[in-house]
What does this fold into?
Amino acid sequence: MGSAVLKMKPADPQPYLKIGDVARLVGVSPSVIRSWESLGLTRPHRTISKYRLYTQEDVKLLKRARFLRKVRGLNAPAIAQLLKREGAVPASTNGASGAIGVHLRQMRVRRNLSLAQVAKRVGISVGFLSALERSHMSASVSTLRKLARFYRTNILDFFDPSESNSRLVPRHKRKVLEAGPGVRMELLACGNTVMEPHLFRISPRAGSGESYTHEGEEFLHVLRGRLHISVAEVEYRLKAGDSFYFESATPHRWFNPGRSETRVLWINTPPTF
It folds into this structure.
């Protein structure tokens, strides 16, 4: 049992590796590999006992992902988007972006609406909406906001609907939204709250997309990196340690102008996502 190289069946010439051995070859922990799997970076085979089995092609792809994380400073969603654009992995995933596609289609079908009707009201193309529903593409924060407004809901309802009213939200139990290429939003409090705090993780050159508005007020504090935010067509350039407040009804958009990930504590009131 010293060797981790397995055969799925005698007639199958493809060797398979266990997750622990893949982790050693790639230079990351098994938990990182599992998190990358949730974003569609790899789809391991499964034994009857549900053990993950990987090929040499999986190892090659995961090494590329590790390089992008270590050398280029990209976070996991940004790595997934880049590899999808390169054609290294399929555009659709079974993670959060897959969940949003399912929920978007369910909401449209329940209202007996066509793709063309929704696309016209929201201001996007029919092809783009269809790709969103099939989880072949991801949407920016501004587009998700428009869809949420049209369906009279909030962005959180597009994702994991799990209930949690605990005062304590452990890091591993946060709701996570992948809002477009390179933008990861982690919800820091759940339940019937007056405020809605997020940790935004924004990859280099990623951002909200076009300007958007909604009710309420917003406060943000840059924990790491840089953030450019435009409010009413006035651009503000924030760096680590800076704080910013504005009224959400004012058109605003934002992006990371730097070469490394930006992290922002972002609070909305009332809850809007």
Summary: Helices lie at 19-26, 30-38, 56-70, 76-85, 96-110, 115-122, 126-133, 141-150.
